[in-house]
Amino acid sequence: xxxxxxxxxxxxxxxxxxxxxxxxxxxxxxxxxxxxxxxxxxxxxxxxxxxxxxxxxxxxxxxxxxxxxxxxxxxxxxxxxxxxxxxxxxxxxxxxxxxxxxxxxxxxxxxxxxxxxxxxxxxxxxxxxxxxxxxxxxxxxxxxxxxxxxxxxxxxxxxxxxxxxxxxxxxxxxxxxxxxxxxxxxxxxxxxxxxxxxxxxxxxxxxxxxxxxxxxxxxxxxxxxxxxxxxxxxxxxxxxxxxxxxxxxxxxxxxxxxxxxxxxxxxxxxxxxxxxxxxxxxxxxxxxxxxxxxxxxxxxxxxxxxxxxxxxxxxxxxxxxxxxxxxxxxxxxxxxxxxxxxxxxxxxxxxxxxxxxxxxxxxxxxxxxxxxxxxxxxxxxxxxxxxxxxxxxxxxxxxxxx
Length: 402
Hints:
Layout: H1 2-12, H2 16-42, H3 47-57, H4 69-88, H5 93-124, H6 129-140, H7 144-153, H8 162-188, H9 192-224, H10 229-249, H11 254-264, H12 269-294, H13 301-329, H14 334-343, H15 349-357, H16 366-386, H17 388-401
Helix pairs in contact: 2-3, 3-12, 3-16, 4-11, 4-12, 5-6, 5-8, 5-13, 6-8, 6-15, 7-16, 8-9, 8-13, 9-10, 9-11, 10-11, 10-12, 13-14, 13-16, 14-16, 14-17, 15-16
């Protein structure tokens, strides 16, 4: 009983305030689980619903909920790290090289057509260059998670046009490996020379880690490999956090560091790590979207709603054009090219990650604009993808009529 006697005072020391925070946060997680269940039944991504809950209980929201924002913020940062790590697990160094060879021309079209509108809109609104570049990133990056889910649900993963979609997503991820360190340097606000030095160090560090991941990844995987799930989980999770932390110190971005660790792990370790860490990713990713919503001032949303709709329509068209070009390079038929184009429309987790970089630094309209933009395209994108064949029928009939 001595051990219990020693523990009891510690338990009794938990204040009523702390207990209420636990209850509030637990209730919130239950609400998120119900929203995820609803979203999956509707065939939609739960991301928009997570964002809506965050906005509803955040500053100026409909409901006042007592939360420890510091605790939620740490969970949100871990969510970003795990999102990028799990994305890196999807690729090997050889696959990256092959996707670069296949998708580089279409990737250039993607960057031109989808990054440029966001930057131009920001500049036309009178935003500073850094905020405009962040909006360009928000508009540019498609949601690999939402897209992969939609293609899987529709049974299109084996279609001829799907490699064009996947190679485009890979190019976007690699662009992020350069873009995120650049934005990290710009957001710090150092001088030109110091900024260039920091950016050079960041890119060099990322390149070294990428080369090491490709060259020594299999050896690292053999060292990490173990039949014990608990040991593997703790080892991989700890390694990801360490590399992410070191990357952040080098201004490479913790997310990019985690992405490169994912690339470095090879099968079968990568498969087991994916299986073990998926529940953690889902929990912390939900926390991230909730946290982002908490930071959005709902009073600004009406002011940016029309702009978000206009940007959403514009970049839906430009993404469709990107998919049309990318699938055409692989010899896909017009129907497949339309499918590829509609598949790329959805935005999601990484648009919010980019907008989150500017919290407290960038233009205050960026966060609500990004939130409404993602809400729109994360919902509409999968729906348009589902009806791609109907859309392609209309396109083909118009072509024949002309």
